[in-house]
Amino acid sequence: MLDLRTLEQNPGEARQKWADRGVTVDVEALLALDARRRTLITEVEDLQRERNTSSKEIGKLKQAGEDASAAMAAVREIGQKISDLEKEKEEAATEVERMMLSLPNHAHESVPVGQSEADNPVIRTWGEPPSVPLEAKPHWELAAHLGIFEFERASAISGAGFSCLTGSGARLSRALVSFMLDIHTTEHGYREVLPPFLVNDDALKGTGQLPKFAEELYRIPEDGLWLIPTAEVPLTNLYREHIFTEEELPTQLTGVTPCFRREAGAAGKMTRGMNRLHQFDKVELVMFAKPEESYQRLEELTGHAETILQRLGLHYRVITLCTGDLGFSSAKTYDIELWAPGQEAWLEVSSCSNFEDYQARRAKIRFKEEGGKPQLVHTLNGSGVALPRLLVAILEQGQQEDGSVLIPEALRPYMGGMERITP
User: Fold this and answer.
1) d(CA 237, CA 234)
2) d(Cα 54, Cα 73) in Å, to the nearest integer?
3) CATH code of domain 4-101
């Protein structure tokens, strides 16, 4: 959530920043409503003081044996005015909060202005396109040949958009999780966390999923809980309403969880096979940093995700999301995309974002320097990385003429020494 006082100081700049993101905001209407809310607070306080004074006068009249009925009627009238104004004040406050929660973050000044993913610049590419058979197969054909995924049976159990890994496919997934967590915890300085997979409304509001993306999420109304769309939600909210010491920053967390997404409105996108699922596993990276260090930390976090792909020898590229393609809560995002030769497509496998103080303001996450006042931290997160498209890239980039798939050398110790997957 943005700072309302900052919007008040420069509404024109705020309006332009939202326009760069393709969002039209009536900033003046928001500020007018908040001004009315503050006026109502003052009016209520004035009336409360007047009522207190009048109540004392009533006491004096009664002690003197005089008629206090007129004064008592006046106090009742003041009380009714206070009640009416309190109601109006609460309605205004609720509407201001609703409007503020619905507004996306402002993009950092370094983010390129653009309208869609077509305007996202590529900032670097790593590795060379893999040597694959002339007629490279997509992963769903490879998986059928190898007998490692059960797409049809998963659909029979849960419907479209779900997968089932079997045999070497399941083992490969497990190996990747262990491989990634080992690197992030022993080399990159993250503390591993296994968080809850169900969260409440406040947790989702804190990271920006609610109220904007309610229809994208799976909800359990009887319990007032939601299935997490990403480990970002529970990991970030571990420190909701917390004050870090300066020495505790940066704090770095990692964890693997299933992610549940309804993907409402995703029809028409590339959804075949493992490309887009309602349930998938993902290793997440979360950082809490001092504001002046957060963009340095974003580069580090992105590098941590890239390390995984480099160790696996996978061809990938990094792009900067333009203003029109930027996520709702993000101030700046790098997407990492893996090359899928069987589909001749780049597939996003990680988004690494700096939210600045947008999430911290919602979740009340702060830090305190020695002798100073508490101030908001900056939060960052990134996929370190997501499993389905990583599996896709390993299969499609590692496919051989004989139909087998080479296992990246770094993974072989986690696969019992297995060098390739065969039928």
Assistant:
1) 5
2) 10
3) 1.10.287.40
The catalytic residue among 232, 294, 389, 396 is 389
Delimiting residues of CATH 1.10.287.40 domain(s) in the chain: 4-101
**Residue 261 falls in the annotated catalytic set:** yes
The list of the chain residues with pLDDT below 50 reads: 268-269
Which part of the chain has CATH 3.30.930.10?
117-421
Residues near 330 by beta carbon (within 8 Å), at least 6 away in sequence:
105, 321, 353, 354, 355
Q: Is 351 a catalytic residue?
A: yes
pLDDT at 272: 83
Question: 117-421: which CATH topology?
Answer: BirA Bifunctional Protein; domain 2 (3.30.930)
Contact 193, 201 (CB under 8 A): no
The verdict on whether 262 is a catalytic residue reads: no
Annotated catalytic residue 348: yes
Check residue 50 and give its pLDDT.
Answer: 92
The Cα 11–Cα 6 span in angstroms is: 8
pLDDT digits (tens, 9 = 90+) for 47-105: 999 999 998 888 888 888 888 888 889 999 999 999 999 999 999 999 999 999 999 99
